[in-house]
């Protein structure tokens, strides 16, 4: 194999200078292909977050609860969770399939399905229809893991941190814009009568417009990908990297003649390295979703009942600011931190950051209870807490570098994403239940939930010590 050892066996972080005569030059990123991939990734938050401002009102107005307002949360929760349940069941299949037929066709199927099911959601008024459309959306949404495989395949050790750092910026942009579309375009016939009053479809389906606008993102991404997205799976490429078309996909002058490996058996994928990477990805995903779910509960719960008692608009501003700060931090600081600290050290620091993230909640509660309202001290603590959240990254690099062979990269990322999706299903229920039980039973003064989450952080830190310090692309090694 002609790939330079200094690239494929580059040490992670500061230790690199001790083991190499000179650092390898940073490979330029293939911006055209990355831009298309980022646009494809934008579709997920756009089609998901657009529903958050409107789903409860949809359930109420469509009479799905039979007039029982207390059941709104239950029905809305079931509808929204259908996406994650089916995604968990099917995402490994899509990753495995992409190892066989290529990344591009799987991405095209998924992104088209995402747009079509979003339109379906806006045009149905029944519980079964809403549930079916969200379930189908999750079932065809194999793009999450496959797009991560594509990023891994068009980058190397010298530029992967930069490529990964921009993905949260894309997600944060979608997570910020989508709720504005969802809340701002609902009931267009009533809110914008001069434009939509004569359109019967917007009267019969008052939430179709935001769903349709959100669907334009995956549908436009589908058209863009059909025209410009290049295949990245090595076994589907039969020419050397001197070909301009391949240069856009893997811009390296040392790329070898690409072979056609067959996808290995599933059992062979479950190496110790993959298991450790997936375990850490799963636990950090559980920490992340638990934090994201408890945060609005904490902000909205009354002072004296475990929270700060903030009004919905303020909570919305805080959550939006958190998303923007997360994306801003990732885009500007993550690559530099990754170069300076290395993947493992940065990941372990990010895990430790969850300890103050969780423990600042009871501190803010105690201050608020004693004062009876949200003080300047609480606001400072809240800003400190939000500033720590963006550190929780690096998992994707471990997952993609752990793939045993090139032909198993899709299955490996699919396995990691399956575990992460499962955590997105069970995490909210577990964290919300712990939060409620801790307050209702006054366990450890109502703070048991934070003690358990802190113990989970310590367990995750222990698992992180098993991660490799030297980052090599096993998929490259296996085929030398």
TrEMBL record:
UniProt-listed Pfam families: MFS_1
Single GO cellular component term: membrane
Keyword annotations from UniProtKB, A to Z: Membrane, Transmembrane, Transmembrane helix, Transport
Residues of the Major facilitator superfamily (MFS) profile domain: 33-471
Topology term for the membrane: Multi-pass membrane protein
Keyword hit for ATP-binding: no
Residue ranges of the TM segments: 72-94, 106-124, 130-151, 163-187, 207-227, 276-294, 314-334, 346-367, 373-391, 447-467
SUPFAM superfamilies according to UniProt: MFS general substrate transporter
The protein's name: Major facilitator superfamily multidrug-resistance, DHA1 sub-family
Organism: Neolentinus lepideus HHB14362 ss-1
């Amino acid at each position: 194999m002609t790939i330079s050892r200094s690239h494929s066996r580059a040490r992670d972080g500061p230790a690199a200078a001790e083991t190499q005569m000179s650092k390898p030059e940073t490979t330029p990123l293939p911006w055209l292909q990355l831009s298309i991939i980022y646009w494809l990734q934008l579709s997920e938050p756009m089609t998901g977050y657009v529903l958050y401002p409107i789903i409860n009102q949809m359930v109420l107005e469509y009479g799905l609860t039979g007039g029982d307002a207390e059941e709104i949360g239950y029905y809305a929760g079931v509808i929204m969770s259908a996406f994650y349940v089916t995604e968990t069941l099917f995402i490994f299949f899509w990753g495995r399939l992409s190892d066989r037929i290529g990344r591009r066709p799987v991405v095209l199927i998924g992104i088209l399905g995402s747009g079509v099911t979003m339109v379906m959601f806006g045009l149905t008024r029944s519980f079964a229809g809403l549930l079916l459309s969200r379930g189908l959306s999750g079932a065809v949404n194999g793009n999450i893991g496959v797009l991560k495989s594509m990023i891994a395949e068009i980058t190397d050790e010298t530029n992967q941190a930069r490529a990964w750092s921009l993905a949260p910026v894309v997600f944060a942009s979608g997570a910020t814009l989508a709720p504005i579309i969802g809340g701002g375009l609902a009931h267009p016939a009533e809110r914008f009568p001069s434009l939509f009053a004569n359109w019967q479809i917007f009267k019969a389906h008052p939430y179709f417009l935001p769903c349709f606008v959100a669907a334009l993102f995956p549908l436009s991404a589908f058209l863009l990908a059909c025209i410009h997205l290049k295949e990245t799976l090595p076994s589907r490429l039969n020419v050397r990297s001197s070909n301009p078309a391949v240069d856009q996909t893997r811009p390296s002058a040392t790329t070898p003649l690409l072979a056609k490996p067959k996808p290995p058996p599933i059992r062979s994928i479950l190496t110790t390295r993959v298991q450790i990477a997936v375990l850490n990805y799963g636990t950090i995903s559980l920490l992340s979703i638990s934090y994201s779910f408890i945060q609005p509960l904490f902000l909205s719960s009354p002072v004296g009942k475990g929270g700060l008692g903030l009004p919905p608009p303020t909570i919305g501003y805080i959550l939006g600011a958190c998303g923007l700060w997360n994306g801003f931090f990732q885009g500007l600081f993550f690559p530099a931190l990754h170069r300076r600290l290395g993947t493992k050290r940065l990941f372990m620091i990010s895990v430790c950051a969850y300890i103050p993230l969780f423990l600042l909640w009871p501190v803010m509660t105690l201050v608020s209870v004693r004062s009876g309202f949200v003080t300047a001290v609480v606001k400072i603590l809240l800003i400190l807490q939000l500033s720590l959240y963006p550190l929780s990254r690096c998992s994707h690099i471990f997952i993609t570098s752990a793939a045993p062979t090139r032909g198993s990269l899709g299955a490996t990322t699919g396995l990691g994403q399956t575990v992460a999706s499962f955590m997105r299903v069970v995490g909210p229920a577990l964290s919300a239940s712990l939060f409620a039980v801790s307050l209702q039973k006054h366990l450890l003064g109502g703070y048991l939930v934070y003690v358990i989450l802190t113990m989970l952080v310590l367990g995750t830190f222990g698992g992180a010590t098993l991660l490799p310090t030297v980052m090599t692309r096993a998929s490259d090694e296996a085929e030398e």
